[in-house]
Design goal:
Structural class: alpha/beta
Oligomer: single chain
Number of strands: 11
Radius of gyration: 19 Å
Largest sheet: 7 strands, mixed
Shape: elongated
Helix content: 25-40%
Number of helices: 10
Distance between the termini: 17 Å
């Protein structure tokens, strides 16, 4: 979005924003600068890119991972040597176990479980795997594609023009989201996500660095890595709810069809934005 025409500021595009939220953002942002924090999957971006990175690693045969992955699965015998499994078997079994983890232990523990998939990668390899995943799924002409929401790209351009600090705060792996942050654009040092310890060979281990950026962990990460709460914050789920509540001006909850989340937002004065219309 070009925000200037003959040195005059162009209005923040309306698109699918509600009248109330569009007006609030249009009035507040030029008074900045301030701090804006965004969830990533299903908020800044349409659909879930974190899971697409998982898909890509599985499709490449879990080639970076140790042979013995039995620690992470109920069926330990099958996973004592993952190289004996076909890619289709790995795909089926990983997603089956992931679904089980989510159902039995909750979303946060399920997300934490996925960290083992990202071990063995160097930072550069993580970057390259992510870009291969992005190339495969980045289809702005399809509702099922993964791509930046036009409304959010407009908003970030508007924020950047008025020199706001813009951060992505995500439960997805930080190195993966860093690799595509320039699509918005957000600088790579302003991505806060799931981080994992490096081993002696500078490859990611399966061990998470706390706080893990889920729920209250997002708030703790903001406190420790930014040092102040956002003026405005955006998210689409209860994972983001604590961050939305900490916004000093207002939070915006993206309504993707969860009435409990919408009701919780309304009760706390968090603005509700219906999921953005798909624009071909």
């Amino acid at each position: 979005m070009d925000l200037t025409t003959n040195n005059k500021v162009v209005e923040f595009p309306k698109r699918s924003w509600t009248d109330e939220i569009h007006q609030l953002l249009s009035n507040l942002i030029p008074k900045g600068p301030g701090l804006a924090c965004f969830d990533f999957d299903n908020t800044l971006i349409r659909n879930d890119f974190g899971e697409k990175i998982m898909d890509q690693i599985i499709a490449e045969g879990l080639s970076y991972l140790p042979n013995d992955l039995s620690f992470y699965f109920r069926d330990k015998e099958t996973w004592k040597d993952q190289k004996k499994l076909s890619i289709s078997e790995k795909e089926h079994l990983v997603w089956e176990e992931y679904s089980y983890q989510l159902k039995e232990f909750g979303i946060e523990k399920g997300y934490r479980w996925t960290s083992f998939l990202f071990q063995g990668l160097t930072e550069q390899e993580f970057h390259e795997v992510t870009l291969r995943a992005w190339k495969k799924v980045n289809h702005p002409d399809r509702d099922a594609g993964v791509f930046p929401q036009p409304e959010m790209k407009d908003l970030i351009a508007f924020l950047n023009y008025y020199k706001w600090d813009v951060y992505i705060v995500t439960a997805s792996p930080e190195p993966g989201i860093v690799a595509i942050a320039d699509k918005f654009p957000v600088t790579k040092d302003r991505v806060i996500g799931m981080r994992q310890e490096l081993d002696n060979n500078n490859r990611y281990s399966a061990k998470l660095i706390e706080p893990y950026t889920y729920g209250e962990g997002k708030v703790k990460a903001i406190e420790s890595r930014i040092g102040r709460y956002p003026d405005i914050a955006f998210g689409d789920s209860f994972n983001d709810y604590p961050m939305l509540q900490k916004a000093t001006k207002f939070g915006v909850g993206i309504d993707r069809g969860n009435p409990e989340f919408v009701e919780a937002c309304v009760q706390k004065g968090i603005k509700v934005q219906p999921y953005f219309l798909f624009q071909k």
